[in-house]
C-alpha cells in the first residue's frame, strides 16, 4: 500500500513538474513583461522559477543521479558558480549592488539549466518539449509582426504593445521608438528589447521546427505560415548575428541530413523580394546597418585594453564589467572570474563538438542528433560572438540538448537505451 501511494505521489509530482516546466518555457521569451509585486515588477519566468524550485529540489533528493550524470554541470558550471560567488568579495561594484544583481542572474541561469536537466528528457519525449519551445515563440513573433506593421503604418509612438505590463523602471526606452534603423523604421526587438538576441532566439526556433513533419494539410499550412513569419521577422531584426546563426545551423543540418536545399534557396529568394520591396518604397537605407559599423569592434578593442589591468588568475570579480558585459563571452568570463571563467567558457564552447562526435545508427536518432548539433553550434557561436550569457533561452536550448545526450547516456544511446521513470538506465 505504501509503495502504491509512493508511486501515485511520484507520478503526480512528475506531472506537476512537467506542467510547470512547459509554462516556464513558454514564459521565458517574455523578457520585458512582468507582474506588479512588492512595490515593483517581477518577470513572469522568474515567478515560475520560484514555484518550480521546491519540486526541483524534491526531484534531485529522490534521484541525485539526474544531476550526478551531468559532467558539464559537475566539473564546469558548478565550480564556476562557486568561484564567481566568492569573487563578489573583491568585486569593485559590490557596494552599488551591481555585483549582487549579476550574481542573481547567474544563479537564475544555473537553476534553469538544472530544471531542464532534471526533467530527464530523452530521445522518445524530446519532441514534446520542442513543441512547447516552438509554442513559446508565438507571442514574441506576434509582437514582432506588430512592430513591422507599426513601421509600415506608423500607428503607435511606442516600441512595444501592452506597455502597461512592461517591467517598471527597467525598459524605459520602450516608451519611444528606440531601435531606429532610419527612415522612421525601427529594428524588430519584440519582447526581448534587443534585436540581436531576439533574432537568434527566433533562428533557434526555426531550426528546431525542421524536425517536425506535419501530415494534416491544414495544420501543415499553418505551420508553414509560422515558419515563413519567423524568417520575415528575422530579416527585419537587421541583425547580422541572427543571420549568421540561421545560416550556420541550416548549412550544418543540410549537409548532414542531405535535405533543406530548397529551404536555403527559398530564404535567399525571400531576402531578394524584401530588398526589392524596400527599394520600391525608398527605405532601403535601413539595410546600411548591415554593412556599417555597429560599434562592437570598438567595444572589443576597449575590452582588450581593460583586461590588461586585471589579475588574469583570479579575475576582477562578478559585476566588475561596465554595463555588465564586453559583448564577448570568453573575455567577459575571464575578466570577472579569471582562469575558472576561462575553463567554464572552454567547457561551454566544446559542447557542440561532443554532440557532433556522437555516432548513432538509428535513422530517427540521426535526424535529431544532426539537428541538435546544428542548433548547438549556432547557439555557442552566437554566445561567443555577442555574449547573451545571462538570457534564459540559450540555457533552455543547451539544457534540452544536454539532457537528451547526457554524458553518461552517450554510449547507451547507440543501443537505444532510454531512462526509466526514476532516471536510472534500463538494463
What is the 3D shape? globular
Low-confidence stretches: 4-9, 408-427
Strand order of the largest sheet: 1-2
Instruction: Let me know the average pLDDT.
Output: 83
Secondary structure category = mainly alpha
The number of distinct β-strands equals 4
Q: DSSP strand (E) fraction?
A: under 5%
Count of helices? 18
SSE pattern, N- to C-terminal: HEEHHHHHHEEHHHHHHHHHHH
Query: Biggest β-sheet: count, sense, barrel?
Result: 2 strands, antiparallel
Explain what you see.
The chain is mainly α and 427 residues long. It has one domain. It has 18 helices and 4 strands. The strands form 2 sheets. A two-stranded antiparallel sheet has the order 1-2. It has a two-stranded antiparallel ribbon with strand order 3-4. The longest helix is centred in the first third of the chain and has 26 residues. The radius of gyration is 22 Å and the shape is globular. The two termini are 27 Å apart.
Amino acid at each position: 500500500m505504501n509503495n502504491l501511494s509512493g508511486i501515485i505521489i511520484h507520478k503526480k509530482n512528475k506531472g506537476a513538474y512537467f506542467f510547470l516546466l512547459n509554462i516556464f518555457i513558454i514564459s521565458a521569451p517574455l523578457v520585458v513583461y512582468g507582474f506588479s509585486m512588492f512595490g515593483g515588477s517581477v518577470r513572469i519566468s522568474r515567478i515560475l522559477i520560484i514555484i518550480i524550485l521546491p519540486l526541483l529540489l524534491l526531484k534531485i533528493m529522490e534521484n541525485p543521479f539526474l544531476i550526478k550524470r551531468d559532467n558539464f554541470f559537475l566539473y564546469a558550471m558548478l565550480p564556476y558558480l562557486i568561484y564567481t560567488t566568492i569573487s563578489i568579495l573583491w568585486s569593485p561594484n559590490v557596494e552599488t549592488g551591481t555585483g549582487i544583481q549579476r550574481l542573481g542572474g547567474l544563479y537564475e541561469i544555473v537553476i534553469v539549466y538544472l530544471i531542464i536537466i532534471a526533467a530527464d528528457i530523452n530521445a522518445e519525449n524530446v519532441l514534446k518539449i520542442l513543441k512547447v519551445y516552438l509554442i513559446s515563440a508565438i507571442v514574441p513573433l506576434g509582437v514582432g509582426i506588430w512592430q513591422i506593421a507599426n513601421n509600415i503604418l506608423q500607428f503607435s509612438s511606442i516600441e512595444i504593445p501592452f506597455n502597461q505590463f512592461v517591467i517598471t523602471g527597467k525598459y524605459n526606452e520602450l516608451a519611444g521608438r528606440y531601435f531606429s534603423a532610419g527612415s522612421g523604421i525601427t529594428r524588430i526587438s519584440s519582447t526581448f528589447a534587443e534585436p540581436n538576441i531576439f533574432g537568434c532566439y527566433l533562428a533557434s526556433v526555426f531550426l528546431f521546427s525542421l524536425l517536425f513533419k506535419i501530415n494534416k494539410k491544414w495544420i501543415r499550412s499553418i505551420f508553414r505560415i509560422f515558419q515563413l513569419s519567423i524568417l520575415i521577422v528575422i530579416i527585419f531584426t537587421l541583425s547580422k548575428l541572427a543571420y549568421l546563426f540561421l545560416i550556420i545551423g541550416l548549412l550544418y543540418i543540410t549537409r548532414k541530413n542531405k535535405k533543406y536545399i530548397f529551404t536555403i534557396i527559398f530564404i535567399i529568394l525571400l531576402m531578394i523580394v524584401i530588398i526589392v520591396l524596400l527599394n520600391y518604397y525608398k527605405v532601403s537605407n535601413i539595410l546600411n546597418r548591415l554593412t556599417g559599423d555597429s560599434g562592437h569592434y570598438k567595444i572589443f578593442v576597449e575590452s582588450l585594453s581593460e583586461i590588461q589591468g586585471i589579475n588574469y588568475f583570479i579575475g576582477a570579480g562578478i559585476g566588475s564589467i561596465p554595463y555588465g558585459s564586453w559583448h564577448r563571452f570568453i573575455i567577459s568570463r575571464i575578466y570577472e572570474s579569471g582562469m575558472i571563467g576561462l575553463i567554464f567558457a572552454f567547457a561551454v564552447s566544446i559542447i557542440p563538438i561532443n554532440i557532433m562526435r556522437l555516432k548513432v545508427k538509428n535513422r530517427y536518432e540521426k535526424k535529431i542528433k544532426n539537428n541538435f548539433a546544428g542548433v548547438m553550434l549556432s547557439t555557442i557561436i552566437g554566445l561567443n560572438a555577442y555574449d547573451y550569457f545571462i538570457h534564459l533561452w540559450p540555457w533552455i536550448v543547451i539544457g534540452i540538448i544536454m539532457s537528451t545526450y547526457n554524458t553518461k547516456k552517450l554510449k547507451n544511446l547507440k543501443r537505444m537505451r532510454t531512462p526509466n521513470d526514476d532516471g536510472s538506465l534500463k538494463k
